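FAQ

Q: What does a record look like?
A: Structure on top, sequence underneath. For example:
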């Protein structure tokens, strides 16, 4: 069990050497320090056990500490955790073979990276090389493709881009779900690519209307515009299909994969290209193969974990499991919206990619805290500027029907309590949340009765 002195040392180190704002927020929240996790369960140092309904926004797709992936990682560590430059790790062949078997037909050229943002940049390089005379990029409003500097130039969230502007005038932002806006944007032939999440993730979680992704792909094909499907959140069964684009029978020119790909053991990303895109890029007058390689070292451990994760997803048919269990969760959340309209607006979701659209940021925070007090972790949007943020629920695809029922029961208890609170409480709390980063940190700790001393920042 972690003592108060231990917690003080943890938060002091966090605040002094990494992120003082995160240290303040975590100390104010008063959450126990996590010790370990297994399957859908997370264990705290104080002995508390919680159901993980967030899975780190989808990373722990096959459950925490999945035995198959753990065995592959252990074997890779024993045999060859890394290889010298120029050599290929044996597990890479297994990963590429697995990807070819599950990806939409035609996506058979792979570039590895260490994160989703890195492979988004790889895709941007491929697009620039393959369509050198076109400079515009279309993205959806609210979309997320990473926060490295080049990835920020693809971001459909202006609040994150603004501190780094100017990032160029190439970005065209269109409403999500509006295929007509995409057709208009690409009509003149000046757009190199459309980057699209088949289901809009992040704090905006939005399921598009049927046929939307196909309409976008058709608009791209008609104008020789490249279609880049960002499946970083949706891939490997999360939406009830292996990949979300399969719902519309779409074959993108480029696909981005990361997050769940190694079961949470080690970061990795894959940019999958069609042969046509790779060949177009190679015709660029300044082409060199190094232009579509990663500068980071992707270890044997990472590729072994990725290959094992895909094997787990396929052998257990986890996409079908998400399709089977998803309605139990989405319908339960929809019932909660009907019973508690004072605080909830909608329950967007598909498969086991679900959430609750709340009336304001304070409701999201209070529901998240209330669920935590009842032993269920949820995916807070961490975006207090959105009018109606979505509290996300992306459980491991290995979860059980009983665990979903446990989560829904905790939600009902939380919302019943919240309904008894005056509406003015959440309005006032929202005002505080939107100003929290400008409030004196010591005041935040006092307001939350935290025993932690803020010794990492001047008052």
């Amino acid at each position: 069990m972690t003592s108060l002195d231990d917690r003080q040392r943890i938060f002091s180190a966090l605040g002094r050497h990494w992120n003082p704002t995160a240290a303040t927020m975590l100390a104010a929240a008063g959450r126990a320090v996590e010790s370990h996790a297994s399957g859908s369960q997370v264990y705290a140092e104080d002995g508390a056990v919680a159901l993980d309904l967030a899975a780190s926004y989808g990373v722990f797709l096959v459950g925490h500490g999945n035995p198959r992936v753990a065995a592959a990682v252990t074997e890779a560590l024993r045999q060859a955790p890394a290889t010298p430059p120029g050599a290929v790790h044996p597990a890479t062949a297994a990963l590429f073979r697995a990807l070819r078997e599950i990806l939409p037909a035609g996506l058979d050229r792979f570039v590895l990276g260490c994160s989703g943002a890195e492979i988004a940049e790889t895709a941007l390089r491929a697009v620039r090389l393959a369509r050198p005379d076109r400079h515009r990029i279309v993205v959806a409003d609210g979309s997320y493709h990473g926060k490295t500097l080049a990835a920020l130039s693809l971001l459909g969230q202006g609040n994150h881009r603004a501190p780094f502007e100017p990032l160029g005038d190439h970005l065209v932002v269109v409403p999500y779900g509006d295929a007509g806006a995409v057709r208009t944007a690409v009509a003149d032939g000046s757009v190199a690519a459309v980057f699209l999440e088949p289901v809009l993730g992040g704090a905006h979680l939005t399921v598009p209307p049927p046929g939307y992704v196909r309409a976008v792909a058709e608009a791209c094909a008609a104008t020789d515009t490249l279609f880049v499907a960002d499946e970083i959140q949706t891939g490997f069964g999360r939406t009830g299909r292996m990949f979300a684009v399969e719902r519309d029978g779409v074959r993108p020119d480029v696909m981005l994969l990361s997050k769940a790909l190694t079961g949470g053991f080690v970061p990795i990303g894959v940019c999958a290209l069609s042969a046509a895109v790779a060949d177009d890029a190679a015709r660029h007058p300044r082409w060199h193969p190094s232009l579509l390689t990663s500068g980071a070292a992707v270890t044997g451990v990472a590729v072994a974990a990725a290959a094992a994760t895909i094997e787990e997803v396929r052998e257990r048919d986890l996409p079908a499991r998400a399709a089977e269990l998803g309605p139990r969760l989405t319908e339960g959340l929809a019932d909660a919206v009907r019973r508690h309209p004072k605080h909830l607006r909608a329950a967007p979701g598909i498969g086991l990619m679900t959430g609750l659209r709340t009336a304001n940021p304070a409701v999201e925070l209070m529901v998240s805290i209330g669920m935590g007090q009842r032993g269920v972790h949820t995916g807070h949007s961490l975006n207090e500027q959105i009018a109606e943020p979505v509290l996300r629920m992306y459980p491991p695809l290995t979860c059980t029907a009983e665990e979903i029922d446990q989560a829904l029961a905790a939600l009902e208890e939380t919302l019943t309590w919240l309904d008894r609170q005056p509406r003015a409480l959440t309005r006032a709390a929202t005002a505080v949340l939107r100003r929290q980063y400008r409030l004196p940190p010591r005041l935040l700790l006092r307001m939350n009765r935290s025993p932690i001393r803020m010794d990492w920042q001047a008052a």
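Q: Is there anything notable about this one?
A: The longest helix spans residues 318-339.
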